[in-house]
Amino acid sequence: MSGQSSKKIITVVGSTGCQGGSVAETFLTDAKLKNEWTVRGITRDTAKEASKKLASAGADMVAADVNDTASLVKAFSGSDTVFAVTDYWGAAGMKKDVEIQQGKNLVDAAKEAGIKHFILSTLYNATEMTNGKLPNIEHFDSKAEVSKYAAASGLPTTYFLAGCYMDNFPAMFRAADDDNNSNNNQPKTTWTLSIPLSPAGHIPLFSPRDDTGKFVKGIVARRDALLGADVRAATARYSPADLLDGWRAAFPGTPAAVRHVPDDQHVALLRGLGLPPHGAVELNENFRLMDGAFDYYGGKPLSLDVLVDGDRPTTWTEFAKKNPAFKDLV
């Protein structure tokens, strides 16, 4: 019991999600971290299966609500470090003002609880980076507003900026049999990447489930040096050709191609998938942010030097190899 009490507590908001789940898993399983830290997982429902799984792995699971600052203060109490993430697409209901308020609640709670290191998952303001040309990427702008609030609060904060999720890209590949390109009278299947990005575009790809914990591990190890700093977490900037090359490396001999999708078709496709009009426009502008004229991180370099202990980020090829969408190709 004395060993347990000597450990510092890292409280992880969204501990059953992809970013928070990665942080929780890393601190529960890393040989060094698990002896130095206790993981407290924050979730809205401690009875759900993902929460029970974390509890069985050693996490102290606590119920709290990002809309209820008092519940967050109670959940943060006694913690040294907090990893905080908001969910625009889920808990915030795709509403900019709601995500901003939820983020401010997290900052206020951390300030009141006396948190020594607040690691905020955030993004840059896309409207400002593009001089108003892409004003609808609300999940960027809302997070940036929370960052400003955290900075003004005096809370000791490091800003974690996740790259574009690799998880979004398998659905952009489609397989089709080409009856005119047969081998031994068997149609050959070509996998086509359909993407609203020109050849000049570059996407900073990131696998949140695999790699968020690695970056947060590095942030915690270099706390003093990284207070007030931005950590831009991505493997590399990939062009459409790079995506295709990486996919071919994962599945040698499988025909593949890339097809540019015009913006209007992309918006229509997203609407067909069930997104509301503003959500479809938002995601399309998100791609335009990476299409050569602008940059996801405003042209700033990736923060790979934050990684420690020989950790390295997951490549697109590695991610594709283990993705269920391509299981028949392995």
Automatic annotation (TrEMBL):
Keywords (A to Z) from UniProt: NADP
InterPro entries in UniProt: NAD(P)-bd_dom_sf, NmrA-like, NmrA-like_oxidored
Domain NmrA-like, first and last residues per copy: 7-319
UniProt KW Hydrolase keyword: no
Pfam families: NmrA
GO cellular component: nucleus
Family note: Belongs to the NmrA-type oxidoreductase family.
Protein name: NmrA-like domain-containing protein
